[in-house]
Each structure stands twice: as C-alpha cells, then as structure tokens.
Design brief:
Radius of gyration: 28 Å
Distance between the termini: 106 Å
CATH class of the largest domain: Mainly Alpha
Number of domains: 2
CATH architecture of the largest domain: Orthogonal Bundle
Number of helices: 10
Shape: globular
Strand content: under 5%
CATH superfamily of the largest domain: Biosynthetic peptidoglycan transglycosylase-like
Length: 257
C-alpha cells in the first residue's frame, strides 16, 4: 500500500533540513579554518618580525659574536667555514677606512639608508638605465645577519630598509662596523676580516697594510669572483683608487674614532 503523501512530504522536509544544516556546518567549518589560517599567518609574521628586533638588542654587547645567515647555511649543509672574531680595536684602522670609502662613503652621516644614493637608483630604474648599488654598510649588515641573498631580491630590499633604520638607531656606528667586518664574506667559507687577512695575506687583521686593506675592500662586492690575494689588473686599479681615498678619508670616518 503506498505511503501517505503527508508522510512523504514530512520525510523530504526533514532530510532537506538536515542537508541544509550539514551544508551550513561545512561552510562554517571552512570559514573557521580560513580564519584560523589567517590568524596563524599573522602570528607567524609578527614572530618573524620580532626576531631581528630582539636579536639586535642582544647583539649590542661587545662580547656577543653574531653569525650571518650564510654562515648558518654553511653549517646546515656541512660545508663548514673559517671565522675568527676580532674586536674593532684589533683591526687596522686603514681597513675600516678603506671599506667605508669603497662601500659607503656616507656611513658616518646617514641613519642606515643613504637616501641620496637610493633616489639616484630609483631615478635610473624609472629612466630604464642600468642601476648602481645603493646598499649601505648598515643595510649589508642586517642582510647578512637576518635575511636571505637570493631569490626575491626586491622583496628582501623592502624588508631590509626599515631594518637598517632600526639597526642604525639602536646600534652605535663602531659596533655596526665591528659586526660587519666580522661577518662579511671574503671568499668561499671565509668570513670576517681576521680569517680573510690570514687566508689571503698570511697576516693578522691588525697588521694589514694600506694596499692589502684596499684590495680586501674592493673584493667585498663579489668575494667569490674577486680574490684579493691574487688580484686581476682591474682589481688592482680599483684598489689604487680606494687606497688614495682612504688616505684622505678625514671626516668621512670620524664616527669610528
């Protein structure tokens, strides 16, 4: 005997209501999951942003010897590296002077970013011309300490700029230079000026000559291709220019006194 029509309709209504409720629950679950993911992402971004902020303060004392992200990569890949920390007082002053005159002539006067150089780079890029480097020593220091090398270089620069301003605000110039000279790469697996001086010239960092200091300074932009211990003709010519500039650096290096 066929079921009463009213029962069929009631059953359909119940099943339809259950399906609707289940559908809403699923959608709600997806919404909750999406919100949870967003909250987790924001939390992770905040934590990542706080790491360099906190580490910068921890790096203030001279007895703390920071390592770079490249050094950590070498450790992680079991490549190993040579780095021997030395205080800035145990580094030949001419080396720091040469690095400033080669890498960042306004190091003592800017606040982490050389806006004049940066403006020139932006103008060149807009005009479609070849751009020059505008990284300051402070920017290179925060990059080496906290950031990556490649890929996503443009994104890294965006992060690098505010970090450089903060780092310069918190850390004295002498300490910035000391950290930079002890984490800079001077060849495959060679980090810091003491290891570089010993590797390329067989002398301690405090005994570097003007010529040796200039050669080390001009090798910094491309330490893998440029060998200060066996310089090409072009590298020797660049070193001669930096050697002359360092000899009359004067007020450009006053913040290191």
């Amino acid at each position: 005997m066929p079921e009463p029509i009213i029962e069929q309709e009631t059953e359909g209504l119940v099943h339809g209501t259950e399906g609707h409720l289940m559908s809403r629950a699923k959608r709600g679950g997806r919404t909750i999951s999406r919100k949870s993911l967003i909250r987790t992402g924001v939390r992770g971004a905040v934590i990542l942003a706080l790491i360099p902020v906190i580490l910068t303060i921890l790096y203030l004392p001279s007895f703390v010897h920071p390592v770079s992200t490249l050094m950590l990569k070498d450790l992680a890949t079991f490549s190993g590296y040579d780095r021997r920390w030395v205080g800035i007082d145990d580094i030949a002053p001419v080396l720091a002077h040469s690095v400033i005159m080669s890498e960042d002539g306004q190091f003592c006067s800017h606040h982490g970013i050389d806006f004049r150089e940066l403006k020139g780079v932006v103008s060149d890029a807009i005009a479609g011309e070849a751009t020059r480097g505008a990284s300051t020593i402070t920017m290179q220091t925060v990059k080496n300490l906290y950031l990556w090398q490649r890929p996503f270089t443009t994104l890294r620069k965006v992060v690098e700029l505010p970090l450089a301003v903060y780092f310069d605000l918190v850390v004295p110039k002498r300490r910035i230079m000391e950290i930079y000279l002890n984490i800079a790469e001077w060849g495959p697996g060679i980090y810091g000026i003491e290891a570089a001086a010993q590797h390329h010239f067989g002398v301690a960092a405090r005994k570097l000559s003007r010529r040796q200091a200039a050669l080390l300074a001009v090798a910094l932009p491309n330490p893998v291709a440029r060998n200060p211990g066996k310089p090409s003709r072009g590298l020797r010519q660049l070193a001669s220019v930096i050697e002359r500039r360092a000899a009359r650096a004067g007020g450009y290096v006053g913040c290191l006194d």
